[in-house]
Write a structure and sequence with these properties.
Helix content: 40-55%
Number of helices: 19
Number of strands: 11
Strand content: 5-15%
Mean pLDDT: 86
Distance between the termini: 59 Å
Structural class: alpha/beta
Strand order of the largest sheet: 5-4-6-7-1-8-9-10-11
Radius of gyration: 28 Å
Length: 517
């Protein structure tokens, strides 16, 4: 009779981990204590070793031996008794020696497959015979399991769930009413709480978008490397960091724009080493490149450490999600809302990662074009914003049309201009072109004369334009251009003025949105 536990692979893995504790933190390996749980024997031996190794590695140990394990566990009577009953000193010496010449990935995959199937079988009660039949010979079933990858197993059960959903879920979103019904109550509601969302980092965009409103989807297009991520993180910190650095007071102050818990979902960079420093930079005012270079002073380091405490207290989550599908995004956004109360979400960004197209093909049964996949994802984000009452901001790259276009609008979006139909607000962030700068030279001079907090002879110029091609609820018109001066090293945005698409000035009142913590 086959068992859902590979003892040999678990033994080898303990040896790998103890020989090189960096494996505990290697992003290629996602192990946890439960992977070492033998559900038939109920043995805690391997789980104690795994957890002990993890704790020792957190303390800086690069290699672990039997002596260091004994020293760590000796004050835990029950756990120490378990180790001694299993002759842990001889065991550790043996597995460390045996694992030196073995391929860690082979045993890792075996462990994770067993752990995955165990969850499906014991916790969910699902049929796993397609991959591993516990009523048959163990050797033959392990051979069968070798023919499947972890992704193939997960995708199989996801497809089964999709089939069930299609057969039984008949949710009808149709809403019907008589126009004029409940008008007094509606007006009372707007008097009490106008449709104004949380604050973005740009007061002019606040005015055009009515802020970052729950149920709404905002999209920002930009060329590759054009600042999408920097400004999106600045938006999220404006809304979801409880404190921010005040340059005048030279201290952190309560963020008057704080509105609630946020989350940042991305798919291309390392969360800890590449994304997190952008958040630290934004709320501390210390340039991003100084953090990456390690070129900060002692005082700046203390400020950055305090920024880390603030972000942790704010419960801002960073989620690396490279294999997302529309269905997985939907589940993740629901989880963020229900488990953590995350109301403000940045999804970086809309692109076709293969999994997305494969999912849509499975649902439709027909070949899928790239533009269909991108539109499908945009539609999913908009539906999630409404269903979860979340404010969602996402990004997309451009298709090259923006280089020559007189009006920079949805025709410049990569993949499909139909994405515009799913948006509440959309803009394209670009540096100003030389001709545009010439046409607004008078506005630049006028702005610089209006500010009196600069040094003598200091003049600032716009280095970015938000071409707002869709602003569903604004009173100023469409295809407006917001001219900014952006410090891309910190995400600080200074709004300068607003023009029409052909660079004629437009009077827009900046909207500053403050909330009480």
């Amino acid at each position: 009779m086959a068992e859902l536990f590979d003892l040999s692979s678990c033994n080898f893995m303990i040896g790998y981990l103890f020989n090189n504790t960096d494996l505990y933190f290697d992003s290629k390996y996602h192990l946890c204590k439960e992977d070492f749980k033998d559900k038939n024997r109920g043995s805690a031996f391997l789980r104690i070793l795994y957890a002990t190794g993890y704790n020792l590695s957190l303390q800086g140990a690069k290699e672990i031996n039997a002596v260091s394990v004994g020293e760590f566990v000796k004050n835990y009577r029950e756990q120490m008794a378990t180790l001694e009953d299993n002759d842990y000193m001889s065991f550790i010496d043996m597995v460390k020696e045996l694992s030196k010449a073995e391929d860690v990935s082979v045993y890792y995959n075996r462990i994770k497959k067993m752990s995955l199937l165990s969850k499906y079988h014991y916790e969910l009660g699902w049929d796993i015979k397609k991959f591993y039949d516990i009523d048959k010979d163990e050797a033959s079933e392990r051979g069968k399991l070798e023919g499947f990858s972890i992704d193939e197993i997960v995708e199989y059960y996801e497809k089964e769930q999709i089939k069930i959903s299609k057969a039984f879920i008949t949710k009808d979103e149709t809403e019907e009413m008589i126009c004029g019904d409940g008008v007094e109550e509606l007006l009372d509601k707007f008097e009490e709480s106008p449709m104004i969302g949380a604050s973005l980092c740009s007061p002019y965009l606040n005015a055009l978008y009515r802020g970052w409103v729950k149920n709404h989807l905002i999209l920002r297009g930009s060329p590759s490397g054009g600042g999408k991520t920097t400004i999106a993180i600045s938006d999220l910190c404006t809304t979801s960091s409880k404190k921010i650095w005040d340059e005048n007071k030279q201290d952190f102050i309560d963020n008057p724009c704080y509105a609630g818990i946020g989350a940042y979902i991305h798919s291309e960079q390392k969360s800890r080493e590449e994304i997190q420093p952008r958040f630290l930079s934004t709320i501390s005012g210390i340039p991003y490149h100084k953090i990456l270079d390690g070129n900060f002073t002692k005082d700046e380091k203390e400020r950055l450490i305090e920024a880390g405490h603030i972000l942790k207290d704010s419960q801002l989550r960073i989620i690396n999600f490279p294999d997302f599908t529309a269905n997985k995004i939907k589940q993740k956004l629901r989880e963020l809302k229900l488990e953590y109360g995350s109301d403000y979400i940045v999804h970086d960004y809309i692109w076709d990662n293969f999994y997305l197209g494969a999912e849509l093909k499975e649902l439709s049964g027909t070949p899928i074009r790239q533009d269909m996949s991108l539109l499908h994802l945009a539609n999913t984000l908009k539906l999630c914003a409404e269903e979860n009452e979340q404010a969602i901001e996402t990004m997309i790259q451009l298709n090259g049309n923006e280089k020559e276009a007189r009006i920079v609008d949805e025709s410049c979006l990569f993949g499909s201009k139909q994405i515009k139909t799913k948006l509440d607000n959309g803009s394209i962030l670009m540096p100003p072109r030389p001709k545009e700068l010439k046409e607004v030279d008078e506005l630049i001079n006028k702005y610089n004369k209006s500010i009196n907090n600069r040094g003598f002879g200091v003049k600032i110029y716009p280095n970015a334009i938000s071409h707002c091609f869709k602003t569903r609820y604004n009173r100023y018109g469409q295809n407006l251009k917001v001219w900014h001066n952006i410090d891309y090293s910190t995400g600080k945005v200074e709004d300068m003025f607003v023009t029409t698409w052909d660079n004629k000035p437009v009077k827009v009142d900046k909207l500053y949105i403050n909330n009480k913590i």
